[in-house]
């Protein structure tokens, strides 16, 4: 049996926002964790739905934060979307780009011509996150799509993490077009679709990759669709209450407070569990949490209750330590 969770895998695929950094600030412990993996010779990859940076820009950002990364290790939804369009369209086809300059550059590098207006009769519209995207951009996209252009979304993340909390993501802008057009995109490339993870694994020939993410509806569901194990870290978007309510297709193999969980024994992060050192559930008179220990271990135990049909959010504390743990998990005020 592996001594550390990471030892059972031949590739670790990281999400970025909410796992390695928030916007452009490293998350506590992330630099040290990735450094330890480098020293151990563990192959790494980074798969991000954020279409506002190119792979080279992401690699440079990571390196600047103290996480050495190579462009070949980074898979972005912008690059993947441009590659898909290049397969679908003749070389030189016009593509209306709704998003950041990075997405335009990827489209251009794929042998296609990025345009900005529907009157240029684009063959496709590609929509990705960009902080400057506004109503005028969405209006041009709506006209082009109604005129017959294919509609490709880099991702449908409703929010993106920030130091101020979740902010509107590309999925929120896709929803605006969906409402205006009365239909869904023709194709969504990024997570939870499995292609980003599959691409990362193919690049190094990995047979047993581990996905590490902070979002149940993208990272974890994408790993499930790709047939890969996953670790949810509680440093980004999805929190304990979200995990307890997760449907089967969004349930991770492991959960940890942060990337330090990669170096725990697999059994110390596995989820769900029926019993865990330090904590116990008493069902007499309603579920009550008793004992003492790490709050994330209490969460693993509560997942066992919730995923078998119980209500993990209605558990009452049976000790001061249990009260503190439920408070730390955001399950009790």
From TrEMBL:
Identify the Gene3D superfamilies for this entry.
HAD superfamily/HAD-like
Instruction: Please state what the protein is called.
Output: Acid sugar phosphatase
Which taxonomic lineage does the organism of this UniProt entry have?
Bacteria, Bacillati, Actinomycetota, Actinomycetes, Micromonosporales
- Mention one GO molecular function: phosphatase activity
Per the record, its GO cellular-component terms are:
cytoplasm
Q: What PANTHER family does its record include?
A: 4-NITROPHENYLPHOSPHATASE-RELATED (PTHR19288), D-GLYCEROL 3-PHOSPHATE PHOSPHATASE (PTHR19288:SF95)
A Pfam family of the record is Hydrolase_like
InterPro entries, per the entry:
HAD-like_sf, HAD-SF_hydro_IIA, HAD_sf
